[in-house]
Amino acid sequence: MSGDGEHGGSEGSGAGVAGGASPGPDQWQAGDEPAWQDGERRPGQGSGRDADGEAGPDGDRDRADEAERRDRQEERFREATRDPLADSGVPGEARAAARVQRAAQARFDIRGNSSVFDRTSFDRAHFGDVYVGARDTAAPVFGDVPEDELDRLRQVYRAPTGYPTLKRVLRGRRVLVLGGPPGTGRLTTGLCLLDEVTTAVRDTASGAGKPVPEAAEPDGRTGTGVLTRGRVTRLAPSDLGLLSADPDAVADGVLDGGGLLVQLPDSAGDFIAPQELHLDALAARFAAKGSYAVLVVSPSSPAGHLLGGRYGLACPPAPAGELLEWQLVRHLADCPDPDALGRGEQILKHPLFLDALGILPEALRPSETELVAERVARHVRGELGRDELLDACDQIARRQAREWFTGAADPLPPAPEPDRARAAGPVDTTASRVREASFRIALAVLDGEAVSSVADAAELLAQQILAVRMPGRAHGRPVFAEDLEGLLAACRAEVRTGEEESVGGVPVPVRTVAYRGTALAGSVLAEVWHRHHAARGPVARWLRDLAGDPRPQVWVRAAVVAGELATADLGYGFSELIRPLSVAKDTRRRFFAATALAQAAGREPYRSAVRGVVADWADAPVPALRWTAALALGSGRIVDDTRQAMELLCDIGGRDEGAQALVASYGATRLVAGSRAGEAATVLREWSENGSAEQLNLAMLCAVRLFCARTDDMWQAEESDGPGAPSADAATSVPASVSRVWGPGGVRLGGRVPGQPGGAGPRARTGQDERPPVPRASVEVTDAELARRAHWPLALAVAVAVESAAEPLADLLWRSLANRLSHESATEGLATWLRAAEADAVVPGRTGRTYVFEQAAGEEPADGTADRRGEMLQALLWLLPRMIRDRRDAERLRWLLRLMADAPEEPMTAPFARHVVAAMAATGRGQGGRGEEQR
């Protein structure tokens, strides 16, 4: 806070200016005499005289112009405390956006190519509306379930919670509608129920298995086979219409005391779903015969409404954990190794196995538990390698996504004849299935966010898809027709209780929805993007629409997904998802484009391509492109050389009279908030000492942001560049000409690096940097330390977490306090530090306000936070002396403490202020004359 030092002398004299040149009217230097702000007149200011000392005719005009320029500069520093999205009308949106981006990058994973074949041959298959397979044209209307199959199910079936209720309802009502998504074990549960309730006729059914010729139908149709009367039978799909048309015929085909299993179709087709009155008639006939019927339906099928009637019950999920362990025991029963079962159980709990599986073990479906147990057993026997086991587990989520989207929507209904066409046109009968598919895609993008956000996004996507399927029509949204529980079960998702900070930056409880496994979201996106090209257009337009959503948890998640999808086809993704939004008028949409670019640059070779684009945009004549480039550069993922990234940001901020200096300073500050902190802070300190006017301006703006921002406003968790990439611990800030470009698998790619001589981008620099490199901090350590201090002031947290950043940060912050333009905003930031440290040092559960430094030795707080309470105060008292160089700085600090103690609202207590002053006095800083601490 001293006026004499590195920049001694007055502004008018030109002393301290690089090269000895006199600064222009817009140029100012850090360390100017603070007393000039307190009413003292600078030499040569306000005299109204020309160069010869005589009064000039243009003196008044010059003074007015200079005052106006100074006002603009001071206003810019006041605005430096705002985030780039301040105009959106959502307070704290940038902080919420940073939090959402951290969460999205931590859990986002697209599981590669979705081409999956789980067996080498098949007897039947469904491709869209085409059925391929062998079917006996003389198949019977009814087919019995073999007794050996029922015996096998009886041995392997594990009853879920709620199974006794299902059996009681079936016995009492004779007809049970069992609801559940395909693959959840509903058919097996239905067969086991029928096996138990028909036990009485197992050995007494003398007629079981005897063929009975079919009678002629009233309309003259003759049967195509024989009626086989078994204890448990199934109705052929071709005759499902008889449930509505002729329930008596269905009942007559079931053995007295026997059971009938019917699987109703998931799509409408020519099938007319039965109503409850038809089930009443069927139940009456079965009661007379002593028989039972189980109808299996999907909640989203045309017959799903039956689940809401008196015959409907949801099929409880199978106990997957118990079933998996039992299947493993069964598969290892004949293994001679006595430790085989123990090794298999250890594999089921191994982190590598669970990560490859990507689905919670308790959420596995019965067929999946059998597959997993069989593969683990083969691995234990030595028949299957570890990589093969992990790959088999990885295929489960992909196979599920394939089942969801293969034939997910039936063909469009035929168009009416021209003379009979109506204005409304044909009706899309598959709209419900389109909405279910849209919900799965929306959940893949917004996995873990609020239910309302996912539901709204899913409906927007459904409208896009329906508009492509049937253009020219307005597709309404069904109201009061949603079955959330059934939809979640069909999507293998669950509702949880979480928090969001979409309003005012304050976390509030909210209902969230998420897949029951980390692999499902990525598998869904890979399936849709890689295998269904016709869906790309609606999905791309939908993601661009989400860019305008005011909720950060929506548009940031969409931006992360857009960047990841762009890497699957960079040309398509860039032109459809990124480039249109990079020049948008809305700052939120440009923020979306910058976030997507940063996500796409997460690994090579995409990083090199994105680096070239950002370098071009940084020098583009379009201001919006430069704005987007500044935000992208701040991610730290695009340009490996920190100094080069800072220089690009300075160039952006210095153009057009500093029109984009604020967003450039935002990007530069984000580079300080991470493992690059030592490099970036060193560059800013150099600029504050001997930089050009543009560099000094950016350095002071960054210092104000460092004072005023919280850690979670800027910090993003970092990640390595993939196998074989140089470790972050060894990385240093070196010229781009010696940086390495890494591809997938750690393979070094040929060609020049963007930024080196002859490389991509107009700003290739040929000079060799002679400055010693600054070690880059460990990514793992930095992320852990900053995550623990997410609520701390940013500069304070970085100084503690990154050792190499402490000294340059202290110098930079001191200069911002001593500068006549930035000192006001910087002082306000320092006041927030003191407030935060005071709140952190308060001992909870005490009457009045007691601080940790007032506690007796050995006394610990009741809430068990002894190790953390007061840590921020300790860090502040460690860094603050490095920002005090002489007596004037110490006096300025005491003045600020007195001002805060006299504040009318929430004044600082006298004991805390005295403790800070005493701590500063103990360091010996600020006791001597001016300039005693200069370096």
The count of strands amounts to: 12
Strand order of the largest sheet: 3-7-8-9-4-10
Q: Largest sheet at a glance?
A: 6 strands, mixed
Contiguous uncertain segments of 5+ residues: 1-55, 112-140, 205-228, 418-423, 720-768, 928-935
Percent range of helical residues: 40-55%
**What structural class should be given to the helix and strand makeup?**
mainly alpha
Please provide a written account of the structure.
The protein has a six-stranded mixed sheet with strand order 3-7-8-9-4-10. Strands 1-2 form a two-stranded antiparallel sheet. The chain has a two-stranded antiparallel ribbon with strand order 5-6. Helix 27 (693-708) crosses helix 31 (806-818). The model is unreliable at 1-55, 112-140, 205-228, 418-423, 720-768 and 928-935 (pLDDT under 50). It has 35 helices and twelve strands. It is elongated and about 110 Å long. It is mostly helical and 935 residues long.
Blueprint (SSEs and pairs):
Blueprint: H1 59-79, H2 93-107, E1 124-127, E2 130-133, E3 142-144, H3 147-156, H4 163-173, E4 175-179, H5 186-197, E5 211-213, E6 226-228, E7 232-235, H6 242-245, H7 247-252, E8 259-263, H8 276-289, E9 292-297, E10 312-314, H9 320-331, H10 340-348, H11 351-357, H12 366-381, H13 386-405, H14 431-445, H15 451-469, H16 484-490, E11 493-500, E12 508-515, H17 518-531, H18 536-546, H19 552-566, H20 570-582, H21 587-600, H22 606-618, H23 623-633, H24 642-654, H25 661-672, H26 677-690, H27 693-708, H28 711-714, H29 779-788, H30 794-801, H31 806-818, H32 823-840, H33 871-879, H34 887-901, H35 910-923
Parallel strand pairs: 4-9, 4-10, 7-8, 8-9
Antiparallel strand pairs: 1-2, 3-7, 5-6, 11-12
Helix pairs in contact: 2-19, 4-5, 9-12, 10-12, 11-13, 12-13, 13-17, 14-15, 14-17, 15-18, 18-19, 18-20, 19-20, 19-21, 20-21, 21-23, 22-23, 23-24, 23-25, 24-25, 24-27, 25-26, 25-27, 26-27, 26-31, 27-31, 27-32, 29-30, 30-31, 30-33, 31-32, 32-33, 34-35
